[in-house]
Structures are given as structure tokens and as C-alpha cells.
Specification:
Length: about 180
């Protein structure tokens, strides 16, 4: 039986919406580390700890120097944003004056309607302008920090390589972390 287009469209739309409404499960790969069993492997792991600590200190130093380098750029971008804000604020003031004039002159109502007139659409027909948002310097710093400063220096890969070289074992497994299907 073929349904007419008029009745099949709502059915198709309902099916698509139902498919979109059910969120898909999210999976995450988890790693389990098993220490080496011999004493040489444990001594090697201590040396790995020193390498990892040196990597993390180098990463922190690089990140701090990057933050110092982006400060002047953030100041420049913040200055430009303040100039744009001033221009937007002037434009907003002009629009606000026009809006107040519109309300004070009753331009929203024709003169031939007198007492007892109820318009079909409630007042005001012309809405007040939205004020511009003032820029925040910290937002510019955060944006530049995300663009230019590297947070992950690769210390995890150094740690994994050293751990495996010392005789440790790493096993991986996939597990569901959100919207998991019911297992029966």
C-alpha cells in the first residue's frame, strides 16, 4: 500500500526526529599499566620518573614563556576591541535616541484612532536596541592562549615509551562512558 505524500511526510519526519532524539553512546579507550616484576625494571622506572618530571618542568617553563609573549598581543587586540566597542556604543546611543523619539511621538499609532482603540499587535511595534557587550581583556588572553600556547608537550608518550622499555606492560580496553546501551 502506497501512502499519499500528505500522510507519509509526517511519518517520515517523526521517524527522523525519533532517531535524532536518541543519543548515541560515547566510548573511551582506557589503559591499564602493569609494573615490571624484576628489580632492574623497577630501577629503570625510577629513572623514567626523573625523565617525566624533567619533561613536565620543561613543558611548564615553555607554557609560562608563551604566556609572557602573548601579553602584548592580548593588549593590542583588547585595544582594538575597545575601539570597536566605542563605535558600537555610539551607534547604540543613536538607535536608542531614535527609539525614545518613536515612543514619545506616538508614531506607533495612527492619529485617527482615538480612545478605546486596541491594536491587533501589542505595543511597541519597534523594540529597543540591544546594548553592545563590553570586551573583556581576559577573554582575549584566553583566546590567544588557546591559539598559541601548547598545553600538551608529549610527556605522556615519553612516559609510555619509557615504561614499556623498562619491561612494563600496557593493555588497552574500550568502555562506554555515556549513553551506554543496556547489556542483557
Amino acid at each position: 500500500m502506497i501512502l499519499p505524500l500528505r500522510t507519509s511526510l509526517p511519518v517520515i519526519a517523526a521517524a527522523v526526529l525519533a532517531a535524532c532524539a536518541s543519543p548515541s553512546p560515547r566510548y573511551q579507550t582506557a589503559y591499564r599499566y602493569e609494573l615490571p616484576t624484576d628489580s632492574e625494571g623497577l630501577v629503570c622506572l625510577e629513572k623514567c620518573g626523573q625523565k617525566i618530571e624533567a619533561c613536565q618542568q620543561r613543558c611548564t617553563a615553555n607554557y609560562q614563556s608563551c604566556l609572557k609573549l602573548i601579553e602584548p598581543q592580548a593588549d593590542g587586540r583588547y585595544g582594538e576591541a575597545l575601539k570597536r566597542y566605542e563605535a558600537d556604543l555610539d551607534r547604540y546611543r543613536g538607535e536608542l535616541e531614535r527609539y525614545q523619539l518613536y515612543l514619545s511621538m506616538s508614531w506607533n499609532r495612527p492619529p485617527w484612532y482615538g480612545y478605546g482603540y486596541y491594536p491587533a499587535w501589542p505595543d511597541p511595534h519597534y523594540f529597543p536596541p540591544e546594548p553592545p557587550g563590553k570586551p573583556v581583556r581576559d577573554e582575549e588572553v584566553n583566546r590567544l592562549r588557546q591559539e598559541k600556547c601548547e598545553v600538551d608537550c608529549g610527556c605522556q608518550t615519553v612516559s609510555d615509551a619509557c615504561f614499556l622499555a623498562c619491561g612494563g606492560r600496557r593493555t588497552s580496553g574500550v568502555r562506554c562512558v555515556a549513553n551506554c546501551p543496556d547489556v542483557k
